[in-house]
Write a structure and sequence with these properties.
This protein is an alpha/beta fold. The protein is built from 11 helices and 15 strands. The chain folds into 2 domains: 77 residues, 2-Layer Sandwich (GMP Synthetase, Chain A, domain 3), CATH 3.30.300.130; 261 residues, P-loop containing nucleotide triphosphate hydrolases (Rossmann fold). The strands form 4 sheets. It has an 8-stranded mixed β-sheet, with helices on both faces. It has a 3-stranded mixed β-sheet with strand order 1-2-3, with helices on one face. A two-stranded antiparallel ribbon has the order 6-7. The longest helix has 19 residues.
């Protein structure tokens, strides 16, 4: 049997992935100290994170990997946990915490507008609900809310109880909150930065989201105040980046991914929307915005490509009518893709525990 060395231990730890990433804890530089004895190993790791599930998962996986080494009877993994730089406190000094009564919070983000992020968020929420999961959908795009329209709730206002807790609207079994339900069609949301931050926090903290398996957050495009407020104050299970195939959208998708990486929020994958168009007349496929961009970008970011959603008239019409296509036609080809993405996300967050 070969003598145990630090190199052997490091090689073994390379099999331990950082939750939500394809990279291992060694390449991330988390291993700070290794102590060896005749048949025992002690390892010290250092992790900057606000998500308590991350160190728990890494400790479990690292100990399991090291026990697989021949001749080892004792393994100890210690983890030094610190807050990420500039994210120890969120806006207004609030610490990063979960949302009361919600098991998993998933943010749907994009680097730029016009890529169909809200359509993806609405149909993913519908897909979770179709899988029997208790689901909520929070429209965090305060300036350009779309979720109320997509769920036919533009004229249905939420109520509040005696504790001033907002009771979310419920449509098709999904709890939802959107500025689009609070304003009429012609009224813009004219709010400065601090007011937008306050409104976002109210939607997340003063709404009764209790009892949910998944809360889907439809973020505004870009990396502005609202996004920073959320990633710095809400313990997210992960984020999904929505893009289209062309390079101009992929550039901004990288920026959105980088924002989540800086605060140790795992990017669960990338969805390529408007991926292609199938002519209803002859069934011919047309790559209107190019092809393969989402797959290449997912590879570059080392995240899964969760799905390629076609440019589809039925999907657009269903949203305009106030019922996401996953609910209107659950057996359709586009609905099947969203249901598959929901299954993948469900498995990803379950494995991160």
């Amino acid at each position: 049997m070969s003598p145990l060395t630090e190199s052997t231990v490091l090689d073994q730890l390379k099999s331990v992935k950082f939750p939500g990433y394809s990279r291992d804890i060694v390449s991330f530089g988390l291993v700070k100290e290794i102590k060896l004895a005749a048949d025992s190993i002690s390892v010290r790791l250092a992790i900057a994170t606000n998500n308590p599930a991350v160190p728990d998962t890494i400790k479990r996986d690292a100990e399991k990997a090291l026990r697989d080494l021949a001749g080892i009877s004792s393994v100890h993994v210690a983890i030094d946990i610190s807050n990420p730089p500039d994210t120890a406190k969120g806006t207004g000094g609030a610490a990063v915490t979960g949302i009361a009564g919600v098991r998993h919070v998933i943010a749907i983000a994009s680097g730029k507008g016009g890529v169909g992020k809200s359509t993806v968020a609405a149909n993913l929420a519908a897909a979770f609900q179709q899988r029997g999961l208790r689901t909520g959908l929070c429209d965090c795009d305060i300036y350009g809310p779309s979720i109320a329209l997509m769920f036919g709730a533009t004229h249905e206002q939420p109520m509040a109880n005696s504790d001033n807790t907002i009771i979310p609207i419920e449509r098709y079994g999904i709890k939802m909150m959107s500025m689009g339900s609070l304003l009429d069609d012609a009224s813009p949301a004219i709010l400065r930065g601090p007011m937008v931050t306050r409104a976002t926090q109210q939607f997340l903290r003063q709404v009764d989201w209790a009892g949910l398996d998944f809360l889907v957050l439809d973020l505004p495009p870009g990396t502005g105040d609202i996004q920073l407020t959320i990633v710095q104050t809400v313990a997210l299970s992960g984020a999904v980046i929505v893009t289209t195939p062309q390079e101009v959208a992929l550039i901004d998708a990288r920026k959105a991914s980088a924002m989540f990486a800086k605060v140790n929020v795992p990017v669960l994958g990338l969805v390529e929307n408007m991926s292609y168009f199938v002519s209803p007349g002859d069934g011919q496929r047309y790559d209107i915005f190019g092809s393969g961009g989402g797959r290449r970008e997912a590879t570059r970011l080392r995240v899964p490509l969760l799905g390629e959603i076609p440019l589809d008239m039925a999907t657009r019409e269903a949203g305009d009518r106030g019922m996401p296509v996953v609910l209107e036609n659950p057996q359709g080809p586009v609905s099947t893709k969203f249901l598959s993405i929901a299954d993948t996300l469900r498995e990803a967050v379950a494995n991160a525990k």
